[in-house]
Q: What sequence folds into this?
DNA sequence: TTTAATTGATGCCATATTGGCATTAATGAA
DNA sequence: TTCATTAATGCCAATATGGCATCAATTAAA
């Protein structure tokens, strides 16, 4: 191991916040980190970290080294990617992250097929419902609902993801079929709620083309769309759900779209996110495979919703 | 050894032109280079060099990698230098190159003193009369007569280096003392001549302030100023010599300045050259030590020439 | 043409480096 | 206080590196 690798190790230690966490993400022993950072300090002749036994802070020199280490990682990444552009056959490790539902339902089938076509490519899939740092964790590709804020990343829209209002037949029997959107105000709703986002109404466009929001009476909140759908299947709530979580519940008649003649606001599409312009062959091919699988015009999941092309358009 | 080091190794191989030469400058076995380059190609998954048994050429991928490797070397260098700026005490290796005469006569005494003051600093001195590539060979500092052309380097004038016309007393006995510069045309001269520079006259400024050149009759040419001086000491030639090669020949009366009332053209000064703005402590200190040793106003060597401040000024 | 010298590749081996385990000391939280 | 967690250290096995000898290919010299 040489100075560059040690600098990258230092960067990882600082990014992760401790020697132990850095060791964990690298799957090596802490002692290795400890020894290599010490060695780096010896080589550079400068103390980089002020250590206590349970934490550390950066010295001035350390802070500068971190910046440089980050530049080095960037440049080294570019270099390796440049080399990868010369591969005719894809190889290497394809590191992907996505939310659990996207990964399980839409990526996994594509991965299975992809690795049959390209056995040389290893795949590492990290399902995580909170965002991860693509750059520092070295991901090639992320799939997310909603455009990411980090403008240093590149996001491409993969498929639209429209909304529906759904209820089970049992719910309709109990509460009657709502005929206009205002009827929803008294009906029990399941709604998405997390630390970052809390849905408290249904946004739609009225007959005059103006954006409106209909308040809802949320009786069940969760930060997992599938859980909300499950709740709705039990007949005790209706739900505002994105199309991409629908399986065959509608085809089987277990869920019914409500108020299909109102016009719902466009919902965040599914995006693919990657950290730099020039993708390695394996990433480009996987990207294409996903787009193929999800469909060009009509997303795959919309085929599970008969007549969806005429719904919620006003 | 990791990818970065291997890329730097590749760069060195390409710059030196062969595995063998790269191995030589690194003082390692050729087999190491061969193995590491192969390893690099495996890791990147790309052939970088088209090899025959006795030479190689870069592939397209190789050429791109070389560029990146060069950027990496630059960035890594900056990083290490940044760390070195935090040293309070100088340490590390000070790599210096100069012409033989400058090194032996003017650097060596300073180095001796410098290493007494800073025992932690190792010094590597390369005496070479032809220019070497500071960047690729990793030199901290070079001392040269004449401003270097490479504008990516930084050059600072260390000391002026005026010219004299010299002859031995024996020469004067034989040929008489020349009273005006035109007299030189018939007198045998020793003159500098190398593949890059051939001195064929003496440039001076006439009474009207106009630049003139007096042709000389060169009977002995060499590409080494000391040899020319030695020849002149034998009494068979006169010579146009830069002041910095004078020892105590004039003080001892073994050489006499001729035609001291003409005005000679300014000659190339001695320059210190370094490859980047922010010098490590050891380099800055050595630089200062050299300037101290050579003198602020009057260069050290001019003290060997009594009355020089009044000579050759017209 | 033959011979000699040089180049990069390869196999083998001694040595140096690395990474894992166990232990220790220090620190902060419960 | 006790307990869990952290980084440092010493020891050992596994791995990687660099040097040597050798080989095959190629070029230059005789």
A:
């Amino acid at each position: 191991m040489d100075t560059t690798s040690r600098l990258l190790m230092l960067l990882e230690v600082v990014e992760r916040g401790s020697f132990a966490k850095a060791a964990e993400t690298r799957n090596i022993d802490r002692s290795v980190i400890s020894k290599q950072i010490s060695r780096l300090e010896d080589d550079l002749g400068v103390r980089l970290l002020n250590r206590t036994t349970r934490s550390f802070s950066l010295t001035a020199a350390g802070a500068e080294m971190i910046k440089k280490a980050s530049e080095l990682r960037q440049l080294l990444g570019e270099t390796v990617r440049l080399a990868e552009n010369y591969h005719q056959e894809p190889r290497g490790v394809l590191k992907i992250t996505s939310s659990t539902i996207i990964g399980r339902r839409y990526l996994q089938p594509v991965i299975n097929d992809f690795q049959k076509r390209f056995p040389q490519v290893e795949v590492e899939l990290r399902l995580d419902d909170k965002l991860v740092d693509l750059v520092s964790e070295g991901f090639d590709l992320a799939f997310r609902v909603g455009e990411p804020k980090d403008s240093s990343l590149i996001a491409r829209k993969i498929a639209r993801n429209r909304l529906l209002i759904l209820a089970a037949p049992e719910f309709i029997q109990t509460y009657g079929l709502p005929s206009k959107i205002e009827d929803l105000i008294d009906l029990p709703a399941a709604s998405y709620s997390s630390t970052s986002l809390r849905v408290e109404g249904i946004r739609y466009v009225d007959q005059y083309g103006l954006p409106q929001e209909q308040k809802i009476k949320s009786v069940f909140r969760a930060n997992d769309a599938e859980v909300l759908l499950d709740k709705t299947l039990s007949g005790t709530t209706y739900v505002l759900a994105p199309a991409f979580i629908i399986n065959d519940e509608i085809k089987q008649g277990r869920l019914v779209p409500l108020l299909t003649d109102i016009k719902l606001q466009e919902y965040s599409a599914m995006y693919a996110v990657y950290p730099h312009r020039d993708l390695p062959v394996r990433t480009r091919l996987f990207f294409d495979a996903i787009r193929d699988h999800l469909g060009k015009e009509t997303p795959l999941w919309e085929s599970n919703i008969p007549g969806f092309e005429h719904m919620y358009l006003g």
About this structure: The radius of gyration of chain B is 24 Å. Residues 1, 28-29, 31-32, 35-36, 52-55 of chain B lie near DNA strand D (CB under 10 Å from a C1').
